[in-house]
Specification:
The structure holds 2 protein chains of 2 kinds. By secondary structure, chain A is α/β, with parallel strands linked by helices. Helices cover about 40% and strands about 25% of the residues of chain A. In chain A, the strands form 3 sheets. Chain A has a 6-stranded mixed beta sheet, sandwiched between helices. In chain A, strands 2-1-4-5 form a 4-stranded antiparallel beta sheet, with helices on one face. Chain B is an all-alpha fold. Chain B has helices spanning about 10-50, 50-70, 85-115, 115-120, 130-150, 160-190, 195-210, 225-230, 230-245, 250-255, 260-280. The two termini of chain B are about 30 Å apart. The chains are: A alpha/beta, B mainly alpha. The interface between A and B is large, with 35 and 39 residues.
């Protein structure tokens, strides 16, 4: 038995919303596995079920050999969790937060202090360990949470949108730390994200949309779903360009905003042909496919520019409302 | 699975057996460890916040100085030797204990809002420990607040012996625990900050006013007396008066029932509330 997480036909139904719809997958031990999808796709719900914070409506999920519904305590003991929203006590110091966690997980004090030092060192917070968390920046808090999640040496670490709301520089910084921790401890990592660049870090990615798992493969494998390279072009008459390319080269493109996109196996040699055929073309570029293209291909929508929908947007609105009232 | 079934180390089955037995052994230990750390967190946070201690001290001091002094001459009550300030002093201690304990335990709502509660909910500890830890934390901080007020005793014309002080501290702990366990029970199901204000307005204030801090039950109108008897703080204040007025000729006037009765009510009340609170937390999803 080598899988750290095994999920079959997992379903979670809210009043009139299928948040997670018959999802099945498994995550190998030591793997970095990512769930990629837009807001409201069911990522957080899945992670909540796997971490026993929510019961599934149907289906089965096994984490480290324990059933999440029937052996919740065993599951909790064997996992570490970093939530989407911060869950630190800001009025305690970094080290106190670590020690609080250690007591909850039954890590002996001496060992906890030692590990805490080690982990804070790795995430670059050792010189701030005696400082109150409320003096920390967003990125520092996140790093502290990642370190805390690993304090009890869990077999699986869950990261729910670990870099949400952080600036790009801090985000890549945090990823460095997560990768380093993964290298040094070999923990299985299960993460959710809607940032494409982050998903690239994963060994395998599951793409989830409207509660359904629509693709599951390595980043390279997923990109193969897109037919080769992506050629972006712009002409004064985009619709005409689209039609004529389809007639002449047999390529079905799509119009997105001001640009036309084609997928072709040999991007570099396609460009001169395209320009020769349409001398009045304004812009043309070639790039390797990204996960963004994969998502677009699979769902017909861009992952980023759609607003949050369903439960998620309600939650975000609710939170914003509460914040203004505070 | 039988204990003698050979299980190979390194397999999932081995890990599973180990964890299951660790769990069987560890559930009680986990409960107490969690209670202890949640309690310690509250105490740490309290001692670290000088401004909060001062702010929560301001109110009782104002009541004592302004209300107590102001009403002093009005309330001679026709009883020789009766001093309103002396009468109100235990009430003010009760009030301080009430507010600090409620505030402390209802801060669970805060923790839920700011996410910290999730850290405990996802940990392998019985959730009932949250209720117990919070109630104990609330009662400890409230008693510390009360102890600070004991320093003001001479200001109210109350002189206390060492034995009395020890008894009063014990009483404050019990009273605060009763109040804090109500706070915990209420907070178990509340999600929002609005709930927090609801609690302070519709629970704390009536509990404070009906506690008999400012007037004795005996002179209260008949309709109010049963309400006062429902208020745990009333028994706490009564118990404090039992101790403070123990050798006074006024004891029969200011006190409604004997100390053992007060204690019995406070203990039973605490027991029921903390049990309900722990049950409520065990059921949270």
């Amino acid at each position: 038995m080598n899988s750290a997480i095994r999920v079959s036909n997992l379903t979670k139904e809210f009043k009139n919303l299928m948040a997670v719809n018959r999802v099945s997958f498994s995550v190998g031990s030591g793997e970095i596995f990512g769930f990629l999808g837009p807001n409201g796709a069911g990522k957080t719900t899945t992670i909540k079920i796997l971490s026993t914070l929510m019961r599934p409506s149907a289906g089965e999920a096994v984490v480290n050999g324990f059933d999440v519904a029937r052996q919740a305590s065993c599951v909790r003991r064997s996992i570490g969790m970093v939530f989407q929203d911060p869950s630190l006590d800001e009025r305690l110091t970094a080290e106190e937060n670590m020690l609080f966690h250690a007591v909850l997980y039954g890590v002996p004090r001496r060992e906890a202090l030692e590990r805490s030092r080690e982990l804070l060192e790795i995430v670059g917070l050792s010189d701030r360990r005696k400082d109150l968390v409320r003096t920390f920046s967003g990125g520092m808090k996140r790093r502290l949470e990642v370190a805390r999640g690993l304090l009890h040496r869990p077999a699986v670490l869950f990261l729910d949108e670990p870099t949400l709301g952080l600036d790009p520089q801090t985000r890549s910084h945090i990823w460095e730390h997560i990768r380093r921790l993964h290298r040094e401890l070999g923990t299985t990592v299960f993460l959710t994200t809607h940032y494409m660049e982050e998903a690239e870090v994963c060994d395998r990615i599951g793409i989830i949309d409207h509660g359904m798992l629509i693709a599951l493969d390595t980043p390279t494998g997923l990109k193969r779903l897109v037919g080769g390279d992506v050629v972006t072009a712009k002409a004064s008459d985009n619709a005409g360009l689209l039609r004529q390319v389809s007639e002449r080269f047999g390529l079905a493109g799509r119009l997105e905003g001001e640009h036309v996109y084609f997928e072709t196996a040999e991007g570099e040699s396609f460009v001169p042909q395209l320009v020769r055929a349409f001398p009045d073309i304004l812009e043309v570029s070639v790039r390797r496919p990204t996960l963004e293209d994969v998502f677009l291909k699979l769902t017909g929508r861009a992952i980023r520019d759609q607003g949050a929908d369903g439960m998620e947007s309600m939650r975000i609105r609710h939170r914003a409302w509460r914040q203004t009232r505070r | 699975m039988a204990a003698n079934t050979p299980v190979t180390p390194g397999t999932g089955l081995f890990l599973r057996e180990q964890l299951l037995s660790a769990l069987r052994r560890g559930i009680v230990r986990a409960f107490f460890a969690a209670v202890l750390i949640i309690w310690l967190r509250d105490v740490k946070r309290y001692t670290r916040e000088g401004t909060r201690i001062l702010a929560m001290l301001g109110q009782p001091v104002l009541y004592l100085l302004i209300m107590g002094q102001g009403l002093r001459s009005t309330f001679r009550a026709g009883i020789p030797g009766f001093d309103y300030l002396e009468f109100v002093y235990p009430g003010v201690i009760g009030m301080s204990v009430l507010f600090t304990a409620i505030f402390s335990s209802v801060s669970i709502i805060w923790d839920r809002q700011f996410g910290f509660l999730k850290e405990v909910l996802v940990a392998p500890v019985p959730r009932a420990a949250i209720a117990m830890g919070k109630a104990l934390g609330g009662s400890t901080t409230a008693s510390m607040q009360g102890i600070i007020l004991l320093v003001l005793a001479p200001l109210a014309g109350v002189s206390l012996e060492f034995g009395q002080i020890i008894t009063i501290v014990g009483l404050m702990l019990i009273m605060a625990f009763a109040v804090a366990s109500i706070g915990t029970l209420v907070a178990a199901r509340m999600e929002t900050m609005e709930g927090f204000h609801l609690v302070t307005n519709f629970l704390t204030l009536p509990m404070f006013l009906l506690s008999g801090a400012f007037f004795p039950l005996k002179t209260a109108p008949a309709w109010m007396q049963p309400l006062m008897r429902l208020d745990p703080v009333y028994y706490g204040v009564d118990a404090l008066r039992n101790v403070i007025f123990s050798c006074s000729s006024l004891k029969s006037f200011v006190v409604s029932q004997s100390l053992p009765v007060d204690l019995l009510v406070l203990f039973s009340f605490s027991f029921i509330m903390i049990t309900l609170g722990m049950l409520a937390f065990s059921r949270t999803e």
